[in-house]
Predict the structure.
Amino acid sequence: MARQFFVGGNFKMNPVTRDQKKALIKILNDATVDQNVEVVISPPALYLIPVKDSLRSDFKVAAQNCYVKDSGAFTGEISPRQLVDAGVPYVILGHSERRTLFGETSKLVADKTQAAIAAGLSVILCVGETLEEREAGKTKQVVEAQLTPVVAALKEADWSKVVVAYEPVWAIGTGKVATSAQAQEAHADIRAYLASAVSSAVAEGTRIIYGGSVNAGNCKELGSQKDVDGFLVGGASLKPEFVNIVNAKQA
Ligand code: 13P
């Protein structure tokens, strides 16, 4: 079965006012988009419920993080069960900003992924190497090391709830997008790893999306690569051009 193209908009800690948030949602609600694409918008946690309630029904929302426990004394955290109860279907886990700025290890990301899926969420699981790691020829090794604890934590059936986002750290927010060849190579390596570590069915069925300086100008070429099943968009998801990215597969 063909993998459905997936475009996520990661707002990160933007926008800063509710008026700006409303203006962004209006642009999305008014847009004409390719109905073959799964579109998922990820606003800050504070806005998840109002965005879900005001967003067009063919777009979904994602949290940008969650904790591993259902409830309890974990100040500042949100649980997978709370997200499910709020009607939020997706969560982004393991984003490089969580790994580098907030010290999340691959083991914690794997535990969160397992907890999120057990609670009923789908997961956008982010992996990717730094510039130093790429220049040292370690991209494949680094990404596999990030995926290995997730493979250990999940059952084969759980992978139907996972979208893998390959986001090279050096391309995030820098304007330095990976070439389509670099993206294709990394995605093919991830798919080959899933085939050997999980199963060929999981490798074939799992969407692997690219993130890092995707914009209206580069999305078509990236999206034409065999193993690029969509995008996770940061900066450009806050602009009208996000609609062009959603429509990247259209002629
Ligand atoms: P940019 O699109 O701003 O580079 O961010 C990518 C990203 O981190 C999406 O999660």
Summary: Strands lie at 6-10, 38-42, 59-63, 90-93, 122-127, 162-166, 207-211, 230-233. The CA atoms of residues 54 and 203 lie 35 Å apart.
